[in-house]
Amino acid sequence: MVRKHARTKAPTEPAPLAMVNTGVPGLDQVLGGGLPALSFNIIAGSPGTGKTTLAMQLLFANATAERPGLFLTLLGETALKMLRYQQQFTFFDLDRVGSDIHFTNLSAETLSGDLDAVFERITQEVERLRPAFVVVDSFRSLIRVHGERSNGQLDHFVQGLALHLTTWEITSFLVGEYEEPELRNPIFTVADGILWLSQAIDRNSVVRKLQVVKSRGMETMPGLHTARITAGGLQVFPRIPERRPEGRPKDGQRISTGIPGLDEMMGGGIPAGDSVVLAGPSGSGKTTFAIQFVAAGLREGGSAVIAVFEEHPEVYLDRAKTFGVDFRDSVRKGKLRIIYLRPLDLSVDETLAEIRAAVQQIGATRVVIDSITGFEIALAPTFREDFRESLYRLIGALTSLGVTIYSTVELFESRDLFPLTGYQISFLTDDIINQRIVEMEGELRRALAVVKMRGSDHSHEFRAYDITATGVLLRESLCHYDGVSTGVPTRQLRAPHQAHPGLTEQEAQVLETIIGAEPLSAGEIAERTGILPAALETILARLMQLSYLGRKGRRYGGVTRSRSP
Q: Does residue 276 sit in helix, strand or coil?
């Protein structure tokens, strides 16, 4: 007996959906690639949220003379009045009206109270024009004529309209004014897609938001997304920006902070692609550090983006010039972009879109956010509640572009607490540099420490530093003091450090500056150590006499063999 084996049927691939691009920046990404063609969609929300503008953008992005669009107004606005305002947007092309896009007003049929007459007129227009896209604005106005008791009739009207529009192979949009509790209305079960627009009001701040409530067959982006009406129409800012997992450098490259001595404290500089947070109190020089970070990148031929929230760009440029850094030439050459984001209804997603666009336009490798504190204040109140989550999305999206992020944040110091970054965001960043203002021997001194570097060794000491006419100058180690983190350190008597026996503190400082570096000139050593040239000449002569240094021409380098004088 021969047993016949049934053939296993190979699984068939699902037929791909034909897609329609919305023409609304950011919306296709939220929709998972666009809207399915031939779908029946509802654009709903409260008045003033941008429903009509969104529908109009869809038509102008897709309609052609061969595949025209039809915009039907029922009662909300006459076609003439609507055109008067919509043509103010840049997407609107009056020359295409009557050929690619047709406008028809059905207010007479709507006011007659006969839904069948409305339906018949829509049918006539569709058969006459054979459109590929149809918008009905606003179908909810039918209730104003027929009263709330007509809800059942309206449901039947919409269901019949949806069936016919789908049969005619039309991509269609019904625009209606709804409040959020009405989402349970059975009318929404008919739709293939539902775009919900709303306004979040908090005191004097108003923010538009968009949510994809439903989109059959599509993997949409969840959550509420910020929307803004600009001269170009509606723009959507996705709350989960597209990431590029391969964007971060993987070759172990280090980039300079622009501050002599700080690179050595960080084990050779900042790992390229890291996120660095510089946290310190007011007056600690955070902006000066950021300026030198950008200047170092520009000197190496790179480009940078600075996002400022507390100062106008011109003020920022003037401040940089006081330290001998003139950024205006780099701005003119397109190597530096300064973004000023100050509106009090700002969203994190808008900020990210602005920075991201600037990075891609000029090929920036360094980004400065100055400061996170000012950033939070500039946000609309509705976005401050989830500020940590927003920062996580912002930093993650920017580092995926391969840029190195340098953020400043203001700390409020306490003797009982040594805060690292504030906002409890230490886990969001790769590297943390912490600044303190401390009282030492009756003077206020600035000190810093590298408290975190992910996957890299670094110095664990506190170093004093000064803000000079040329920028930041690192000074001596505060290894002889305890309690620096409290703000009131006390000097301790300790056995002298024996790394370089027989040397004074200044001689050891000069030697440490030279060791591990390329051969330096006397001028470069003076700049890095802050020691006057006359005193430095004596120190260099003694270090050479003790065979700690060698000299070639006018440059000095450390001798590799150890020496104990």
A: strand
Closest CA to 533 of 543, 542, 523: 523
Global pTM reads: 0.70
Question: Two tokens at 397?
Answer: 């999206």
Cα distances from 394 to residues 327, 346, 356, 518, in angstroms, run 26, 14, 10, 37
Q: What is the pLDDT of residues 187-209, one digit of tens each?
A: 788 889 999 999 887 766 778 99
pLDDT for the residue numbered 532:
81
Kindly indicate the confidence band of residue 158, based on its pLDDT and cuts at 50, 70 and 90. Answer: confident
Q: Are 46 and 198 in contact (CB under 8 A)?
A: yes
Q: What share of the chain is helix, strand, coil (3-state, %, to 5)?
A: 35, 25, 40
H or E, element range at 306: strand 304-308
Residues 6+ apart with CB under 8 A from 220: 30, 31, 32, 212
* Kind and range of the H or E run holding 263: helix 262-265
pLDDT exceeds 80 at position 144: no
Overall average pLDDT of the 449-453 stretch: 92
User: Measured between alpha carbons, how far is 52 from 39 in angstroms, rounded to an integer?
Assistant: 18
Q: Which amino acid is at 559?
A: V
Distance CA 71, CA 138 (A): 10
SS (H, E, C) 475-492: EEECCCEECHHHCCCEEC
Give the best-scoring range by mean pLDDT among 8-22, 97-111, 281-295, 525-539: 281-295
Give the pLDDT of residue 218: 92
Pairwise CA distance, residues 314 & 400, whole Å: 30
Closest CA to 142 of 93, 73, 200, 88: 73
Question: With contact defined as beta carbons under 8 Å apart, do 102 and 68 qualify?
Answer: yes
| Cα→Cα distances 487→409, 413, 418, 447, 497, Å | 18, 8, 9, 10, 24
CB contact at 8 A, 63 and 133: yes
DSSP state for residue 110 in the 8-state scheme:
H
Distance between first and last Cα of the chain = 101
Q: What angle do CA 371, 373, 374 make, to 5 degrees?
A: 70
3-state secondary structure of 493: coil
- Nearest residue to 216 (alpha-carbon basis) of 193, 194, 195, 196: 193
Angstrom CA distances, 460 to 211, 344, 477, 492, stand at 48, 40, 10, 18
Structure tokens at 442: 């009756």
Reduce the secondary structure of 354-365 to three states and give it as a string: HHHHHHHHHCCC
Rounded Cα gap, residues 233 and 25, in angstroms: 9
Q: What are the helix (H) ranges across 379-426?
A: 381-384, 387-399
Angle at 201 between CA 383 and CA 74, to 5 degrees: 125
